[in-house]
Amino acid sequence: MLLRFAAENVMSFKNAVEFNTFPSSKSHSHEWHKMDCGYVTALRMSAIYGANGAGKSNLLKCIALLKSLVGAEKMGEADIAEDLYFKLDENGKNTPSELAVEFFTEGKIFYYHLRFNRQEVFEEELLLSQKSKDIRIFSRKDNDINVSGDYLRPGGKDDFIEVFMNAMNRIVRPDMLALSFFGKYYPEELPAVKEAYDWIRRLQVVLPTMRIGYLPHVLDGDSEFAELVNSIMPELKTGITKLGVRKEILNEDEVRGNTTMTKAINAAKEHPGTPQMLMETHNNEISNIVVEDGVPYIKTLIAVHTNYNGDDVEMKMDMESDGTRRLIEYMPLLYAILKRDNVFVVDEIERSIHPIMIKTLMSKISENRDAKGQIIFTTHESCLLDQSIFRPDEIWFAQKDVDQSTQLYPLSDYNIHKTANIENGYLNGRYGGIPFLSNLSDLKW
């Protein structure tokens, strides 16, 4: 579970700004949304609103950036396109950016903090959060790294610890994260660091340009998932009565010369049982290539409609609307949130989807009292501002300050009655987070 995330001097965040999932003492609805995380409690849903350009997407981009940095061998591989500092302050260029995250995993609460720029890490630390006093697992200042002997598995061997740390200070370069290095290369020596590393790597960040492309393979191999999907699809009234998979043995001679297909086939052979994504490259369909029992298969997603005679009619996915395809891509996300302790961070969750459909989807997650996962998303869709779906402390707003920096605050900062129509209040500007436009008559419109 994600507990807190903070950013400073990065993108549109000038001073340190924090987003958190802690419940407010003012909010008492949807008690089943509260999840025990050691000595604290976290909420499993969060919706972030804001005007265009207010910076709500930047919060999610910062989370994606942290995941990318942790997953990279060195900072240059994280594909940072340009300097990230807050560019509307002349002091920002000479000040490092900072990201911090607190999360719950494996029965522990970790806090990870990073101070950096595009080329190097200046400070880094991983703490084990405790109710009374936090415990430092490792800390780093420039290239001086210190690891607590209590968290080094061969504990009690002072000579080993000294040799280990001397080696680390020579090996870990300025453009490498110590968390990544320890998590990848020393998981047995530093198991607590590996747990934190794995959690950040498992974070599921879904930006508008990303596609979820393993659906055919999952639908084919997981009957419980297929049952859930096909119980929900008819309710969404897209015309699809169920989703299916067309599974065919792949004839390699027929695709010889197709670079994309050949590359996917070779990757599937190297990793049997692991699907290779073919998004809109095989006859504009959603397909996976996977090798099972030594045989290469192509699995293609199909939509089944019912005609006026009650007969099933299969249709290719390129015949479905963008909104329908987007809904279908959300099915693995929905399943993972209901069944597993995954954390999903989704930007523009309503993109191309009708308000009633996205409201139905969010209601399914909200109403399920056994859901194990967490979802945090940005949206402009005001129909989701409904107290039957969200608690006031699960709704956040992004707004630009006078210096054009992004500020974040929850709806629970206001006194919200449980019967209040928060959608109307939001659209009337009562809580902020909306665009304030010039008077069009003054512009002679």
From TrEMBL:
GO terms for molecular function: ATP binding; ATP hydrolysis activity. The keyword Mitochondrion does not apply. SUPFAM superfamilies: P-loop containing nucleoside triphosphate hydrolases (SSF52540). It comes from the Bacteria. The keyword ATP-binding applies. Keywords: ATP-binding, Nucleotide-binding. Residues 46-162, 275-385 form the ATPase AAA-type core domain. Pfam families: AAA_21 (PF13304). This is ATP-binding protein.
